[in-house]
């Protein structure tokens, strides 16, 4: 029989130090403990790891976790071990394979993290057959779908492995999956439609605004002047990052630092920690900045050009206001952004073109809309929001309806 509610609460408290589950975590954990396969779509920071780590502790047998990056696995490993969970990884970066294999075979591991390419190896399937598997957790599950923004062919190798253990439940986890990607994840991983659980994506304290770009340095100065707290400005290129950081530092008198992958690692680390510790700093950055940065009091996120997709927009703007206090997200777009993105489409394989074009069309839809921005955003993530949020530019000020697609086509044919 599945563990009782009391056992769940006790493990949550004693192992993880949490007083309660958050949001949809309890729905997901309940399903998993009942042995039912599930796809959980939960925003970044919602606590996806706990939804497999808690069952891993409670259930008999090992939870096998598929994760796309060694760095992610080692982060997870550290935090799991810090909680006293018996966890290990089997990656090329590990020297203790033999110990891990012995512990696994002896049923002494709660969690085993593996990369997807491992899944296709016959020895690995034999290894799994040598002990009891409680659960397959597939993290970053959008990687299995060509519709997703980060397709990894290796994720397709998982299905035969999962099917070799039909009695073991599957828990797929992702932060970013539109309707197509979700349906595809369910199909690719053999999870029934009734297994889909979607968490609340709304960030009510973020005020969204999307404006045409004219004089970007002046427009960004306006955003900075209006928002005295810490902020992030995303710029499309390293050169633009450098240029804007310099200009805005002078024009606003605020501390402004650049961040991009072309800076020396020690400079990046220094700028990042200065930002995290500051109450008024502005970071001008490429999208390389933000992953894994825990700064709850970011008061604004501005985009100096269009993001890659609605998923990217949601993720990047979502770095504002994690503390729940009022925050703003402002995007400045140009028809040339869309024109350039459309030109780049033509360089892709035919199969990628279709999904990337749709991604760009969805983004154009958000930019062009006279409807509530939040409603468009939330509908994209499968929710049914109220028609008007009252906390975005189109709700607060009437806007001109702009056709970004036509403008981009005009630019291209000029
Ligand atoms: P995700 O993978 O969804 O982005 P994580 O699993 O990394 O999120 O969790 C984000 C943070 O939330 C972690 O610091 C985690 O310890 C914390 N967290 C998760 N669940 C809870 C909970 N029920 N109560 C308090 N904190 C939680
Ligand atoms: Mg995660």
TrEMBL record:
GO molecular function: 3'-5' DNA helicase activity; ATP binding; DNA binding; four-way junction helicase activity; hydrolase activity; metal ion binding
GO biological process terms, semicolon-separated: DNA recombination; DNA repair; DNA replication; SOS response
Start and end residues of each Helicase C-terminal domain: 219-364
EC number(s) per entry: 5.6.2.4
Catalytic reaction annotation: Couples ATP hydrolysis with the unwinding of duplex DNA by translocating in the 3'-5' direction
Taxonomic superkingdom: Bacteria
GO CC terms of this entry: bacterial nucleoid; cytoplasm; replisome
Cofactor(s) needed: Zn(2+); Mg(2+)
Keywords, comma-separated and alphabetical: ATP-binding, DNA damage, DNA recombination, DNA repair, DNA-binding, Helicase, Hydrolase, Isomerase, Metal-binding, Nucleotide-binding, Zinc
Residue ranges annotated for the Helicase ATP-binding domain, each copy included: 29-195
Family: Belongs to the helicase family. RecQ subfamily.
Protein name: DNA helicase RecQ
Organism: Novosphingobium aureum
Phylogenetic placement of the source organism: Bacteria, Pseudomonadati, Pseudomonadota, Alphaproteobacteria, Sphingomonadales
Residues of the whole record sequence present: 36 to 449 of 629
